[in-house]
TrEMBL record:
Family from the record: Belongs to the OprB family.
UniProt cross-references to Pfam families, sorted A to Z: OprB (PF04966)
Domain of life: Bacteria
PANTHER family: PORIN B (PTHR37944:SF1)
Native source organism of the sequence: Saccharibacter floricola DSM 15669
Protein name, per record: Carbohydrate-selective porin
Amino acid sequence: MWGLRSELGKYGATLAIQETSEVMGNPTGGIHRGAAYNGLTQAVLQVNTQRAFGWYGGTFNVSMEQIHGRSLSADNLGVLQTASGIEADRSSRLWELWFDQKFFDQQQLDIKIGQQSLDQEYMISSNALTFVNTMFGWPMVPSADLPGGGPAYPLSTLGARARYWLATPLYLIGGVYSGSPSRSWSDDPQKSNSTGTSFPLNRGVMAIAELQYVYPALGAMVSPDGNQPLSYTYRLGGWYDSEPFGDQYYDNTHTPLASPDSTGVPRNHRGAFSLYAVMDQMIWRSHGTDPNRTINIFGRVMGTPQSERVPVDFSMNFGLTFKDPLPYRTDDTFGIGMGYTHVSSALARNDKAIHRYTGNYSPAQGGETFVEMTYQYQFCGWMQWQPDLQYIFNPSGGIPNPVHPDRRIKDELILGFRTNIAL
């Protein structure tokens, strides 16, 4: 950055800017056929307090987002599991603003306080982040069930998080956050909090905890003449949000919402929760001249038994990544994966009730499945190209097509090309 990064480094500050641009289109299926451009510029500034002014173990972080383009998923696809992880409303907004403090000589404990996006630390599969589809990042269950999709990109919320090194190789991470990223109870948080500076504290509370088993553990040693171990990370966790959640079938008088006698106001339930498990497992490593050549598998499952109060009660992702798949392409990655989500039984029951009361075409929603194949090509040190192919089966679990309401949205083929530029 013309010497700016070097100058900031003298004061313990690190500045990173990344532009992600992509063109995606659906030549078949969907509500409409067509293509769309979508883009995200991110800027992150971190300050190491020890280097800046002698305060041991502290890190200050502030990050911004500038989102441009339009959403193919909303305009053309009508899916639950959106095709791109950067799709969001056009805006320029504050993303995260926090301070993290490490304690003890071996940094066994660190505490983070401030505006945080939970998809940076919880429920993550590091191998799944290779892919383009949103659901390989923040999962479908919290995306659909939590207010505003939860405190995850492009949103965040105030809270406090603690991470403790229990014993090699166990870690416990947990936090308490505002129950919603917006002060409003009814508006879209991306619109009502368009700048990311609302800092709501008038809502419920979201609590989340995760146990991590990491191998090899921090500080583990390998014999100079020994083979590198096949690493893995396992996570078990759960979240609870105390916000009110609307019933998917009954109104506040216990009348079906689809009934002409309904008030149209869903019956409220206090709180909702979900449990999840995540696996990252290296299954092969080259013992030749390139030890970075590896094959990894990953998986994540998440669900809730409270199907009467949430639109989605189960989701899962599985896949495989091949690092350095071609000779002399040490920074490339090939990936193939899939995702599945299931609409709650109460919402499917409501679909049947709509047909019963109105006679309109209203098929009961079920499951939505997608597969994705992608290749990250490191064009140069600061630029990455990524062609991508996705296919979505039974979009949104089988909802009617808004353009042709007498039939479902057809299965969709999605072709895309993404460019990542790091400054």
